[in-house]
Amino acid sequence: MPCSSSKSEELLLPRPASSNMYWFCPGQVQNEESGFNVCCARIYSAGFDIYSTEEELSCSDFSELLERPLKLARSKVLFEQEFTNILHALQVVQFLWWKARAQVNSLRVAKRREVWLLSELQQGKIASLKFMFVKDNELANKMFRDERCCLHESDWTEFTFAVDELEHYSRRLQKELVMSLPHWRTQQIIYKVPL
């Protein structure tokens, strides 16, 4: 995600917690042979695929891949935006549902971003990642079945808008939080109270 060179304006993005926190599996035993990574399953259920920007998928712990930069794809098309990690990508997908879809007709124009057709090699890499992180596809689809994104498959305009709007929204919230810190110090609350 493009960030300003100024440290004070840098967008703060989430870092994933331990990998087992995101692994859901039926029953009480944490088993990586069944179940799925919740972040990945939510992205897949919205109709997107995950593409690792790593040259080779050779991590000893594949969950480390989710802490590294990645891209999203849809219908054999790769979106150029590189996301910091899986949580950053998931934030954009969820923000698209939560806020951006309602605002897509606003006057703000999204930055132009490129998309590329996926090669056979890239499609294979995407399929490998899906197999690694969603062992029980049926269960994942059952849990997140209503989240399929209703974007036109070849149109990335709304998604591009969501990327830009999330950045704008996050910066605004960050500014509001910083402005409320004096209230926290004096009154132990993060909003201004009239006296």
What does this structure look like?
This protein is 40% helix and 10% strand. The chain is of the alpha+beta class. The protein has one domain (18-187). Helix 2 (86-103) packs across helix 5 (157-187).
For the record, the count of structural domains works out to 1
Percent helix range? 40-55%
Number of helices in the DSSP assignment: 5
H/E element sequence: EEHEEEHEHHH
* Fraction in beta strands: 5-15%
Q: What global shape is seen?
A: globular
Sheet with the most strands: spatial strand order = 3-4-5-6
Number of E-state strands: 6
Rg, Cα atoms, Å: 19 Å
Chain-averaged pLDDT: 78
Oligomeric state of this protein:
single chain
User: Major sheet, described briefly?
Assistant: 4 strands, antiparallel
Cα separation of the termini: 41 Å
Quick take:
The chain is an alpha+beta fold. The chain is 40% helix and 10% strand.
Set out the fold topology.
Layout: E1 23-24, E2 36-37, H1 38-45, E3 49-52, E4 70-74, E5 77-79, H2 86-103, E6 115-117, H3 120-133, H4 137-143, H5 157-187
Short key terms for the protein model shown above:
10% strand; alpha+beta; four-stranded antiparallel beta sheet
